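User: Second chain of the day. Same drill as before.
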Amino acid sequence: MPHNTGNFFINVPLGLVGLALVARFIPGDRAADPKPLDWPGFFLTSLGLALLLYGLERIAHPEDGALPAVLLVAAGIVIGWLAVRHLRRAPHPLLDLSAFRVQTFAISTLAAGTIFRVAINATPFLLALLFQVGFGLSPVDAGLMILAYFLGNLGMKTVTTPTLRRFGFRTVMVVNGLIASASIMACAAISPETPQALVVALMLIAGLTRSMQFTALNTLAFADIDAAQRSSAATLSSMLQQMSMLFGVAVAAAILNLSQIVRHRPALDLVDFRIAFLVIGAIGLAAALRFLVLPPGAGAEVSGHTSRT
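Assistant: Same format as last time:
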């Protein structure tokens, strides 16, 4: 049986269990006066996102040519603009964009948050290619190396809450963001001759800081969102997270391809990956510094942090 088919058979019962748990434990809050579905908003938003995301996905496949990807992305942006224009004017919009007026939500999702997620989401893609193409490792060996990266994700979960309580969102997101970005840039220095223990240690640090930043971003996003905005805010946050995943892969692929073209190389080599890691790390650094606009007490009600004066 193909591995992908087996994955589907595993996911189906897990999904059913998840549905049962939701039905059992999540309260079914219904609005007393439900609003009509915003069909024009639904159509424009769906079409714009579909074109934009598919166009971004095409960027990672340069063998198909650049023109289709550019046209798809351009069409997605135009229709997305029309969707935003409609959502701002509709009496009952599909998505309530007023959530972006909340500073903590806007910073952690639309502004610095999305930019930082682009850098973080590009990293696993680059690492997988680096270990297989740059180092010549087999997919299994490359997967074992990346495993340390995701073990770091799990290892940070137990200390995230006390860290946010002690230092607050702004300090954690700036300092941790700088460390995470530096760890991405440090990947440009590794080579097949680098001791494996050093590579694993770097993967752990990158994974630990990635987990901390993701948790902080996702928590801060809803710290100041009221109940009336929660549904639309959750949809907007989820949509932007999915877009940042594709942006990350697309940007990383574009940097690799551009580096290869500029250097007139027939295939990717270590130099291309080093350039990509440095550029992606620089993007993360810029986003991390952007979190400085947050007030010291941002999200204090959620984190329990008390600012010192």
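The mean pLDDT is 87.

User: Great, on to the next one.
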